[in-house]
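Subject: Predicted fold for Dihydrolipoamide acetyltransferase component of pyruvate dehydrogenase complex, 439 residues

User T.R. writes:
Posting the sequence so we have a shared reference for the thread.
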Amino acid sequence: MAEFRMPSLGADMDEGTVIEWLVQPGDTVHKGDPVAVVDTDKAAIEVETFAGGTIGKLLVPVGERVQVGTPLATIDSSTEVGSVPVPRAPAAGSAAVEAPTAPEPSAAPAAELPAPEPSAAPARGAGEAGRVKASPYARKLARALGIDLGTVPATGQRGLITSQDVRRFAETTPPANGRRDTSLSAPAAPKPAAPTVSAPPTTPGVPAPPIRRAARHVVQRSQRGTIARLMARAGREIPHYYLSTTVDLAAAVGWLTRTNRELPVTERLVPAALLLKATALAARRHPELNGYWTDDEFRPADQVHLGVAISLRGGGLVAPALHDADALPVRDLMAALRDLVERARSGRLRRAEMTDATITITNLGDQGVESVHGIVYPPQVALVGAGRVVERPWAVNGLLGVRPCQTLTLAADHRATDGFTGGRFLTTIDHLLQTPEEL
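User M.O. replies:
I've generated the structure tokens; pasting them so everyone works from the same file.
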């Protein structure tokens, strides 16, 4: 009998809260299947199992906060059939969730992306016998909000309605009677129990705010506390050094203009895609900046997993990884970025995405910032900051013109590298962006 334990989903994580079970006792799972959603105080993350078999007991109830390493469930591995997972038929309507739906590409990774459009024929959580399939917490949430689960589109496995489905439905669907009971405990509140929130006064005919503001404040405060601890640790332990350079993006912008003429609107590329690819390639060429500082020494990573700083709606920040970003074509990297941003903001990140980043990039250009001097995310040793693209006078071969330019900065750990290496790294990014067709 194998045990599924609370994983460590970050260097700063000591505890986590199971906010949703995606399986029930008796369900068959395969290695890599998501089985639970865990709140790390920074984000809700789907956690996969490393063992296949039949789910035995769920040892930790929804809402309970436990230490990393605590057994969460038992899995009877003797019932696993073969080692090759059997593909599951996706629930009706789930395909629409997978497809990027942003009508216009974001100007930067941290930019707000439009919410995904609902499926034209969304799946409902009806089981084979007409019984609505929903997680226990989704049922509790629906009862508290006065929502009929039979009307909620399901996006979980095998047509399961998740708590995220209920929240999304509550945000987008006005209540039939003009108001919705918003009294509910915070969804991921650790012990002691989170405070309840009284329904705010409403005007007849005007829907009440569907989201519990006080509960959201609790979650935001928890996220802020986690970020504060991590950044304080970075400030104490990492001797930063900073470098910056201004890059001429005329070649990159021209190539993007020509390329986007041939692409559908939903697949068009933005300068951030080229910057991500150039940064990933530069990290591969300068492995001294791609890896971790642990046990008083630098350990280079074998792959380039590019962490992307994403601001969350309502506050908070996460930096999940784009795996093997140096090996992805630019169009695939753009699609992966859209998918990552969408899932980060809907609380559907995966465990590996939160733990595997080897170097991070942050882009605040959409906020009007011209340069970013960031803080390295420990135990990583480097972070690249990007400002907005601006037109500047620029001399080329003695001729003065106006060119689109962007300021890039490097924040790096002086224990692992020095300014010479950092300078070569930024210069490599610059050179790569002058030949975008080769990225």
